[in-house]
Amino acid sequence: MHPAIPHLIELQRIDHQIAVLRADLEAFPKRVMDADAKLTVARGELAAAKTTHTEGAAERKKLEFDVQQWKDRARKYRDQSGAVKTNESFKALQHEIATAEAEVAKAEDRQLEVMMAGEDLERRVKLAEGRLKEAEQAVAAERKVIHAQAAEKKKQLETVLAERERIIAPVPEDLRELYARIAKRHNGTAMAEARDGQCRGCGMRVLPHILQELRTETNEEVFRCESCGLIQYSLEPIPVANPAGGSPNTSSTAAANS
Ligand SMILES: [Zn+2]
Questions:
Q1: Spacing, Cα 164 to ligand 1 middle (Å)
Q2: How far is the CA of 217 from the centre of ligand 1 (A)?
């Protein structure tokens, strides 16, 4: 096995962690957006309730005006009726007065309806305001949780990125490039264990003499699976680099070969 293999195994482990953390972090903005969408709905409902309420109030104003106008008109006709000279004009005025009074009654009926509906609309506005307030509080709490979780993930990511730096330090440039190239092509995975005579990346058989080479500590070649192309390693019987860390220079295999 090539002396850098234990480091690459560690690198693979940490890269998988990094990928998971990155995916988690990428999901956060959508979670915030989903939370905010609840506010948009509640705001929309309140706006609609307010619009209907405003329209009702406008109609009430207009009806008040109408009632007053018809009342004024009836009074004006009544005032004129004392001064008319002919029976015919008097009758005509009486007719106008009756019409105006009928209009007053009609407008007043409608006024009552609108007023009663207005109370309902007012309740609807209050209800929507309450719901928006509740939603705002819930979403604020949710955002707080999401941001705290995101901050924690970011911290974790920074930690593992620093660890990655430490792990990759002893890996020669050409192997870094090979690893990166293979990982890029295989969804972040560049390494495959050869176990029980099989490549764990693709399930293909690993030839016995290759297995033998993988287990030979003095071997400095890098073997790749002929089928999937991943870098192969065997965990038996060669020990891995100390995963708990310490300086990469203390890694026994690297030190032995340098
Ligand atoms: Zn394979």
A1: 25
A2: 21
